[in-house]
C-alpha cells in the first residue's frame, strides 16, 4: 500500500524561523492515508483532517508516495496518536535530546517517521538518533 508524505512551506514568521533553524526548505511534514492527513501541529497537537482542508493551510506542498508493507498497524498507530500534544520542547532541545522515540508528544517529522516505521516503510537507519526533521525526511525518502 502507498501513503503520501507531504512536505510543506509557509511564509509566516514561525515557518521562516523553523526553516532557518532546521536548515530546511520545509517547515512541516504530514502523512496522508486515503483522504485523511495526519500531522502534529503547534496549535492542536496530533490531528487528522481531510486533504482538502490540509492543503489550503500551506503556500507550497511537495508530495512523495511511500510504499508501506503493513497498512493496519500504520492506521492504528496514527489513530492512537490523535490528541497527543505538539512537542514544543523538541524544537528547542534538538541538540540536547537523547532519543526522540519515547513519545508523549510529537514534532511533525518525528510522527511521520515513526508512522512509516510502524507501517514497514523502507527508511534509512542513518538518521540522527536524537531528532528527525523535515529536511532529514526530504533527503531520506525517494
Q: Could you describe the 3D structure shown?
A:
The chain contains six helices and five strands. With 142 residues, the protein is an alpha+beta fold. It has one domain: endopeptidase domain like (from Nostoc punctiforme) (endopeptidase fold (from Nostoc punctiforme), Alpha-Beta Complex), CATH 3.90.1720.
Query: Domains counted in the coordinates: how many?
Result: 1
CATH superfamily: endopeptidase domain like (from Nostoc punctiforme)
Total helical elements: 6
Instruction: Give the biggest beta sheet.
Output: 5 strands, antiparallel
**What's the helix-strand series?**
EHEEEHEHHHH
- Overall 3D geometry? globular
Strand sequence of the main sheet, in spatial order?
4-3-2-1-5
CATH class: Alpha Beta
Mean pLDDT: 88
Give the percentage of residues in beta strands. Answer: 15-25%
Distance between the termini: 16 Å
Annotate the secondary structure layout.
Elements (H helix, E strand, L loop, with lengths): L1 E8 L3 H10 L5 E6 L2 E6 L3 E6 H4 L5 E8 L3 H11 L6 H6 L14 H11 L15 H7 L2
Antiparallel strand pairs: 1-2, 1-5, 2-3, 3-4
Helix pairs in contact: 3-5
